[in-house]
Amino acid sequence: MVDIRVVGARDRQKQEFTEEISNLVCPGDVITTDTGFMRGHGTYMEDEKLHASVAGVVERVNKLICVKPLKTRYNGEVGDVVIGRIIEVGQKRWKVDTRSKLDSILMLSSVNLPGGELRRRSEEDEKMMRNYLKEGDLISAEVQSVFSDGALSLHTRSLKYGKLAQGTIIQVSPSLIKRRKTHFHTLPCGATIILGNNGSVWISATMNEETEQTGGYEQDLEPVSKGDREVIARLRNCVIALSEHQMMLYDTSVLYSYEESLRFNVKDILKPEIMTEIIENTQPRLESLGT
Amino acid sequence: MAGVNLLSDQGYRIDGRKPNELRRIQCKLGVFKQADGSAYIEQGNTKVLATVYGPHEIRGSRAKLLLDRVLVNCQYSMATFSTGERKRRPRGDRKSQEMTMHLKQTFDAAIMTNLYPRSQIDIFVEVLQSDGGNYCASVNAATLALIDAGIPMKDFVCACSASFVNDNPIADINYLEESSGGPELIVATLPKSDQIVFLEQNSRLHEDNLSKVIDLAVKSCKDVYTVLDQTVRDHVSELSNSHGWDH
C-alpha cells in the first residue's frame, strides 16, 4: 500500500499559537540609540545607532548586545564534539567537512595512530595517511582550536573519537543540539548515539568493550543483526520527529521519544500525525523532569 | 501599443489596479529543508523560488577566492514553462546572465560581506511563472531566503518596477504593461535607510517625469518591505515559540 500526502496540508494548523515576541528584530532594525552598548554578533553600528543584521531575538549580557538568528551554519567552539567527513588528504593534514562555514582541518599530529599514544610520527606515517583515513570516511572529533577566519582545527586524541564504522547519520539544525557534559550516549535500547554539536547525529549499534578501545581504525564490518538495525532505524525516525517539531535533542528527549514510539511500526513514525502524537506524549514527560 | 488602453479614463489599469497599487504579494520562508535558507514569493502571477547555500568553503575554482570578504555567487534561471512560449534554455542565455550579474551586484551591496572571508554564498533563483517584474520578485525572494539562512545583511533589499503612462506614473507593472513599449524603471532599495542599490531603465522617459517615477518606485519598495517584514516576523515568532526558548 502506498501512502501519499499533499505537501501543503500540514502547515495550516501551526498558525494558531503564533504571537509576536517582544524583543524580535529584523535586519536593519534599530536596537538602541544608546552608544554605551557593545556590538555583538548579528549587529552593526551605523550613524551612532546599533542595528540588527539578522532576524532573531535580541540577547543582552551586561553591556553586550547580540542577535541570535534561528537558523544558521554551525559556529564552532573549542571543546565541541563534531561529526565530519574527510574530503581531502593533504600535507600532514586532512580536510574535514563539518558543515561549518569553512572546511575544518585535522592535523596528523592531532590524531591517535594505531599502536599507542606515545608513538612518534615518522615520514612513514605521512605516506600512510590515506590508510588511516581516506576521502569519504566519517569521523567523530573534538574542536581543538578555532582559527582567526573561523575555520576549525580538530583532534581525535582520545579513544572515544576516531573513525565511525557502521551506522546511520542524520543532519539536523545545529541549534537543536543541547550542550551537555557528554555527547556520547549508550542508550539502554542497545544503540549508541553521538549528538554532534554541528547538527550531525550518528547512531550505531553498541559495540563490545574491546573493539571500542582501538579508536576505530579497525572497522568492524560484520553484518549488523536485524534487531539492532530496527533499533537504529527507530531511533533515527525519532530524532527526525524531534527535529521536525523543533525539540532540543539530548539523551533524555531521544530516549523518551523512543519509548513513546514503541507502540508504532518503525516506518509509521515518519507519518506526520504519528510524529505529532509521539512528540505530544514526549513533551509532558520532559517537562515533568523540569529540564 | 495601439489599441490597448493601459490606463482607463476612470484611472484604472488593465488588471483593475490603481496606478500606485501593487499586486498581491504572498510569501513563505523555509520551503526547503536541505538548503540553508529558502523562500517562495508570489507577486500577482509572477512566482519565484529562491534558495541560499552558505557561507561555505569555495567549491570549484579556487581562483575566485576573496581574502577579505565572501564571494556572492548567484544563478538566475527561468523554468522552461514559466513564459507563454516554452523557453529553450532555462539559464545561461544573455538575458539570464545579465540578470545574474545584477542580482550579484545588488546583494554584494546588502550582505555584510566582510564577515566571512574566504568563503562563498550561493543564491539560486528560479522563476516558475513570469508575469513581469521578474527581477523585482527575484530580489524580494532572495532577500527572504538570505534572512532565512541567517546571513547578516545591512537591511532588507526590496525591489519594485514602475512605468509612466498618460502622464501618470504606475507601480509594479505586469507583463502586458512591460511589453507595451513604455518606459520601465526598476529600483532596488534598502528601505530603512532610503538608499538605492540598483536602478535600471528601459526605453525612453522624459527627464521631467523621471523623479515622479523614481519616487513612486521607491515608495512601492517600502510597501513591499512592509509585507516582507511582517512575513519574517511571523515566521521567526512561530519558530521560536516552538523552540520553547524563554522570553
Automatic annotation (TrEMBL), chain A:
Pfam families: ECR1_N (PF14382), KH_6 (PF15985), S1_RRP4 (PF21266). It comes from the Eukaryota. It is found in: Cytoplasm; Nucleus, Nucleolus. Signal peptide: none annotated. One of its GO terms (cellular component) is nucleolus. CDD domains: KH-I_Rrp4_eukar, S1_Rrp4. This is Exosome complex component RRP4. It comes from Mytilus edulis (Blue mussel). The lineage of its organism: Eukaryota, Metazoa, Spiralia, Lophotrochozoa, Mollusca.
UniProtKB/TrEMBL annotation, chain B:
It is found in: Cytoplasm; Nucleus, Nucleolus; Nucleus, Nucleoplasm. Keywords: Acetylation, Cytoplasm, Nucleus, RNA-binding, rRNA processing. This is Exosome complex component RRP41. Component of the RNA exosome core complex (Exo-9), composed of EXOSC1, EXOSC2, EXOSC3, EXOSC4, EXOSC5, EXOSC6, EXOSC7, EXOSC8 and EXOSC9; within the complex interacts with EXOSC2, EXOSC7 and EXOSC9. The catalytically inactive RNA exosome core complex (Exo-9) associates with the catalytic subunit EXOSC10/RRP6. Exo-9 may associate with DIS3 to form the nucleolar exosome complex, or DIS3L to form the cytoplasmic exosome complex. Its main location: cytoplasm. Pfam families: RNase_PH, RNase_PH_C. Residues 21-152, 155-219 form the Exoribonuclease phosphorolytic domain. Belongs to the RNase PH family. CDD domains: RNase_PH_RRP41. GO terms for cellular component: cytoplasmic exosome (RNase complex); nuclear exosome (RNase complex); nucleolus; nucleoplasm.
